[in-house]
Amino acid sequence: MLRKIFLLLLVLSAAGLPGCRNGAEPKKINLEKREPVSVATGGDHGKHLRIAVGGMITPKEGLAYYRRFLDYVEDKLETKVDFVDREDYAEINEMIKKEELDAAFVCSGPYVDGHRDFGMELLVAPQAYGETVYYSYIIVAGDSPIKSFEELRGKSFAFADPLSNTGKLVPTYMLAQIQETPDTFFSKYIFTSAHDKSIKAVAQGIVAGAAVDSLIWEYANRMNPEFTSKTKIIRKSAPYAIPPLVVSRSLAPKTKEKLRQIFLQAHEDPKGKEILNKMMIEKFVVIDDSAYNSIRDMKAWIRKNKTR
Question: What is the pLDDT tens value at each position of the chain, 308 positions in all?
């Protein structure tokens, strides 16, 4: 059974980050300031909408543009929109399940889980670089002699969130295909809570490798390549359906449709387009649930072929 250590890293430059080893005791350290979430009824009663942005959807500096975009949505919707910042995907899924959120930008893996477990609904998905897919990048330091994923055997590794598709599920699937698990393959592994932190951990030599969201790596490489420039991609996964915007089943159909149209038309509005450009999103599009079947298949394959 995979050991899980949840680390919210405040200073990645610190030496000797703890990893997962035999006998390691799972713990969760969370020192991040969290914004309170109102329990007032959301869009159904015209008071306000609560929309969360998963902390791994964008590098930390990119959250400012998501805030601006939600301000844009608020103006168009003529309903107050509360920005809810959360890093833990499990927490976001639980909040949507409990109807403490009306909508959220989530990772593809947590969407699949939420849709199965409590009917989490797709609303729209972003299109970036001409596609509605993304990839898991396996990265190492730019000056590392490692050239393949297999050469990371016995080395240290960084995952993002335990529920992350590109930052945990995909590399676990890669290992399962060679009859390995993170426990048997790596000397230690950590959870950084964010893809940009995983990139930084590799760049600074804290871990030998990491699995990161291609969209995050490409965003950082264009906007602030301080750390991506010190890494190299040694493996690119198959494509997977891009992280979507989801809504709670309890959101009123009229509000849901109005919200959908605001997102779908944002790229046609000069103000909306300007913000989307900063987010490195071309536009939002409708996406079908079946697009995420490859992730379901991957999860099923791991369960079926678990040998250790």
Answer: 333 333 333 333 333 333 333 333 333 323 233 344 443 334 444 478 999 997 667 777 788 999 999 999 999 999 999 999 887 889 999 999 999 999 999 999 999 999 999 999 999 999 999 999 999 999 999 999 999 999 999 999 999 999 999 999 999 999 999 999 999 999 999 999 999 999 999 999 999 999 999 999 999 999 999 999 999 999 999 999 999 999 999 999 999 999 999 999 999 999 999 999 999 999 999 999 999 999 999 999 999 887 54
Dihedral sign, CA of 226, 227, 232, 236?
A: negative
At which residue do the structure tokens 């979430």 appear?
A: 37
DSSP secondary-structure letter at 77?
H
Report the predicted TM-score, pTM, of the whole model to 2 decimal places. 0.83
Residue 98 contacts by C-beta under 8 Å, 6 or more apart in sequence?
A: none
CATH topology of domain 43-131+241-303: D-Maltodextrin-Binding Protein; domain 2 (3.40.190)
Is the Cβ–Cβ distance between 6 and 28 less than 8 Å?
yes
Nearest to 300 by CA among 113, 91, 118: 113
Question: Within 10 Å of residue 10's Cβ, how many Cβ atoms?
Answer: 10
Q: How many helices and strands in the chain, by DSSP H and E?
A: 10, 15
Q: Where in the chain is the domain with CATH 3.40.190.10?
A: 6-11+18-27+134-240, 43-131+241-303
With CA atoms as reference, report the closest residue to 167 among 175, 176, 158, 154.
158
Query: What is the C-alpha to C-alpha distance for residues 232 and 13, in angstroms, rounded to an integer?
Result: 19
Q: For residue 243, give the nearest of 52, 34, 2 by alpha carbon.
A: 52
Instruction: Report the distance separating Cα 57 and Cα 201, nearest Å.
Output: 18
Just give the CATH number of 6-11+18-27+134-240.
3.40.190.10
